[in-house]
Amino acid sequence: MLLDTPICDFGWKAPDFTLKNPHGDAFTMSEHLGDKGLLIMFICNHCPYVKAIASRLAKDTLQLMAEGINVLAVMSNNYHQVDSDSPENMLRFAEQHGFSFPYLVDEDQHIAKQYGAVCTPDFFGFNAQGELQYRGRLDDARLQDAPNRVAELVNAMQLIAAIGKGPKQQTASMGCSIKWR
Prior knowledge:
The chain is an alpha+beta fold. Helices cover 29% and strands 20% of the residues. The protein has helices at residues 29-32, 48-66, 87-97, 110-115, 152-163, and strands at residues 2-4, 18-20, 26-28, 38-42, 70-75, 103-105, 119-120, 122-126, 132-134, 174-177. The strands form three sheets. It has a five-stranded mixed sheet with strand order 6-5-4-8-9. The chain has a three-stranded antiparallel sheet with strand order 1-10-7, covered by helices on one side. The protein has a two-stranded antiparallel sheet with strand order 2-3. It comes from Shewanella litoralis.
């Protein structure tokens, strides 16, 4: 089912969490909340929307990380129901698309529920104080690779890194619903 993300709740404080990647390495959100902010993305492997943006997502997040903005991705789908989202397939998907950010498993879906994530992809851009400043889309290209796209997520995270505030105008991300238990 196609869903849109809600509008940004500016200033909402990010709940801390610790999740593991498919190799079993633990990552704690608060340890990644750097002085230039943190992007948390809810994505999965099987969603056509995530598949369509995966190469642009890899490129954009690599740029953000090079600029000192931290990035974490969370997979919250019930992978017992959707095998293509299993931890083993997360590793394959991340390698296939060149993801350089930690890709974490939300086994009990607790983090997606705490954050109010509704779809994949769902982007949460936080400032250095852990306050939500962006809940928009990756870019204006939608499902196509557009050479003249506006990289809205990159622009928003750069603004957050510079002044601690996100853009007032944001366009909702859209994607597949999270597959709940």
